[in-house]
Write a structure and sequence with these properties.
Elements lengths: L1 H29 L7 E11 L10 E11 L5 E8 L4 E7 L4 E9 L4 E8 L10 E6 L15
Antiparallel strand pairs: 1-2, 2-5, 3-4, 3-6, 6-7
């Protein structure tokens, strides 16, 4: 009876080792280098006295989002989507190329931009979505009162 228990234990250990080895071999392709990586970035920026703006618009706000192909190969069918807003599409996004979404407004107030990107092929998802916001409020200064008026 003791020999049978030892044989079963040895068989169990061998089976567990085989399953573990198969898991390691199967995990290899998942860790292989991906052909491209879509990286999204953005921001909401306020600036004073931008060139080309009339002086009546002291402050202006710029909301933007950009996706860039950081991989060594082309990314097919890339979509950049602003949540409840604009979208941009490229049939092929070559390495280091980008797609942009941007808006500009006179004045500056708390605002945000958020969105995501994807392709028809799988790429790492850790940098495919984002939200950016500001909490600034800048209004044009009130006109000076005229004396005696």
């Amino acid at each position: 009876m003791k020999k049978r228990t030892i044989a079963r234990a040895a068989t169990s250990v061998a089976a567990a080792a085989g399953i573990a080895a198969a898991g390691i071999v199967a995990a290899g392709p998942a860790n292989a280098q991906v052909p491209f990586d879509l990286r999204i970035e953005g921001g909401v920026n306020c600036s004073f006295g931008e060139p080309g703006q009339p002086w009546s618009n002291f402050w202006s706000m710029h909301r933007w989002m950009k996706v860039t192909n950081d991989g060594p190969y082309d990314a097919p069918n890339v979509l950049l989507q602003e949540i409840a807003g604009q979208q941009r599409f490229a049939p092929v996004l070559k390495p280091r190329e980008s797609l942009f979404i941007e808006t500009r407004w006179a004045g500056c107030w708390p605002s945000s931009i958020s969105g995501y990107t994807h392709s028809s092929l799988i790429d790492p998802l850790h940098n495919n979505a984002g939200i950016w916001a500001n909490v600034q409020f800048r209004d044009a200064p009130a006109p000076e009162e005229t004396p005696g008026g």
